[in-house]
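Per reviewer request, we include the raw input and output of the structure prediction for the construct analysed in the revised manuscript.
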Amino acid sequence: MHLIETHAHLDDPRFAKDLDAVIARAGQAGVTRIITIGTSLESSRAAITLAERYASVYAAVGIHPSYVEEEKSEFFSALCSIATHPKVVAIGEIGIDFFHLPSNATDEIVLKIWRENQAKAFYQQLELACDLGLNVIIHQRDVAGASAAWEETLRILKPYTGKLRAVFHCFGGTPAQAKEVIAMGHLISFTGIITFKNAPTVRETGAAVPLDRFMIETDAPYLAPVPHRGERAEPAHVCLVAEKIAEIRGLSLEEVAKVTTASAEEFFRIL
């Protein structure tokens, strides 16, 4: 059995002291490849360094929407330069985040500019992905009960239908939302949230979507699945995500592993 961990943050300081052991445990659990994700220029460069260091690790590079203000417009030329590295397999994570508001969020003009800057960075990185023939990893998050970020993400992404594919990472939406994404030719990805008692919608979606239209991830060191909830997540835990999906769908772990691994190999072009 082979699994691919499609979304981890191996450059996180929580892995600094024992990353060799973390990578080894992943391999022992059948996790043969790991995609480590950039969220800023610094972490994107770190992702590439880790991909150079470990044969089983690949990098995605990009500016997370929450880091757009910090990076300003200067990020783009630098990102273009590093994105051509041979172990870069996607642009991401990129997208729209209206959950983490700026400190002066009560000022409507500030909010307008903040939203516009996120959209501009999203567009720029989608264009870069098209230019390089890479797919993209989407981060999309709304304030609870709102849908503005979801709608904005789809609005910006829609013109790229047929030009690239996206995976909506850490998907927490409904089966109907998943269907909308899949109809555009994109994928979704499940994390350890699918094991949480308070996540029935995610499990409903995990049961409903076609088996070949999603991937699995941990988002390590975040969102450790049960029975490790509250601890540091690591790539080896992606097995627990696969096990829960197999349970929900009445399938064998081997079947879930086989199909999700094939989807990840195709999406990231790491055949």
